[in-house]
Amino acid sequence: MASAPSSPQAPRTARAVGRGTCSNAAGRFERHAREAVHDGWDIAEELPPLRTELTEERAGRIITRNASPDLSFDRSVNPYRGCEHGCVYCFARPSHAYLGLSPGLDFETKLTVKPGAAEVLRRELSVKGYAPAPIAIGTNTDPYQPVERERRVMRACLEVLSEFRHPVAIVTKGTLVARDLDILGEVGRAGLARVGVSITTLDAGLARSMEPRVPSPAHRLRAVERLARAGVPVRVCLAPVIPGLTDHEVESILSAAASAGATSASLALLRLPREVSALFREWLAQARPDRAARVMARVRETHGGQDTDSAFGRRLTGQGEVAGLIRRRFRLACGRLGLADRVPPLRTDLFRVPPGAGDQLSLF
User: What pLDDT is stored for residue 33 in this prediction?
Assistant: First the structure.
């Protein structure tokens, strides 16, 4: 099926305040595009602000498998589809098109929650012959986005993983992760958990503009400190590094994170797959018009002249002189600060199926 044509760029309106983008072009699988037009009436009309909408999904399976050579894990769990954080650069935005929704505003306002995820996870871990390996959470959408405060799906999954003594690796921008220190501290000290905290910039104004519902960089650094004090190994994730916009902060972010207690670090360059490219360009033209052309030129330099490169081995690290220089600076700063780029594997030898976890109720 042909992709739907993109809607024209729209100015940011009061309705989209606090959101990462103001566009809501139809997804690539839709037959029709949507376009807002003036109705001809010169009557001032105030549209209500966009509210977050939740849809519940009863998942049949919750552990997703992958065989990507770029990833250090082969299984993951995603408690939510879509993300209220609204990061304009989020590589997961195109996944909303599979739901018949826009990767634009729909991605950050129309979320799917999986309320029975913990029960499904318990069932899958209890299957006879299950071989434990670290489960990654937060690799697509953030498990500690604002809606988690009320729905607590991530908390419930974490309780199951703790009960099974199953290793887990979490990535988040949300400071709500500190709510679960009672669990994470115990499993972290046992070698069963680590947390990656993503920090893209230390500039609070820039952060608020491109990741509007994410806690400020200062609050994220305090979360790093709290996790580290509780005995949780913490990795600072410079993801994404945006050439021409945030790459000058590589050393300062690493230094601040090391001071807060992070013991390792990782780096990923900005990539703009599918619909993310148009959304990011639109944001850049509005938020940083004086630097838009320079930033996009640098981004393309790191991806062989394109906005993105999906090839394994290059999509996260980039290529060319600009990408190589960023990587070298990253390695030198990590060496100076004592931040590891590789971490010891999480333990799998403590895994156990609790008594009765896999029992089936009798029908008679």
Answer: 60
Mode of pairing for the β-strands spanning 53-56 and 110-113: parallel
Helix crossing, 292-301 with 276-287: angle to 10°? 140
Q: How far is CA 256 from CA 33, 265, 268, 331, 353, in A?
A: 45, 12, 18, 16, 40
Which CA distances in Å does 64 have to 82, 165, 201, 345?
A: 16, 19, 30, 20
Say if residue 112's pLDDT is above 50.
yes
- Determine the number of helices (DSSP H) and then strands (DSSP E) in the chain: 11, 10
Residue 21 has a pLDDT of 81
Report the 10 Å Cβ neighbour count for 159: 16
Write out pLDDT tens, residues 286-344.
Answer: 999 999 999 999 999 998 888 887 777 676 777 889 999 999 999 999 999 999 988 89
Distances (CA, A) of 108 to 56, 198, 210: 16, 18, 13
Alpha helices in 239-275 (DSSP H): 250-260
Question: Which sign, positive or negative, has the C-alpha torsion 47, 48, 49, 53?
Answer: negative
- 3-state per-residue secondary structure call for 83-117: CCCCCCCCCCHHHHHHHCCCCCHHHHHEEEECCCH
Single pTM value for the model: 0.87
Residue 347: what residue type?
R
Interatomic CA distance for residues 161 and 143, integer angstroms: 15
Are the beta carbons of 307 and 299 closer than 8 angstroms? Answer: yes
pLDDT in tens, 9-39: 344 444 566 787 877 776 666 665 666 655 5
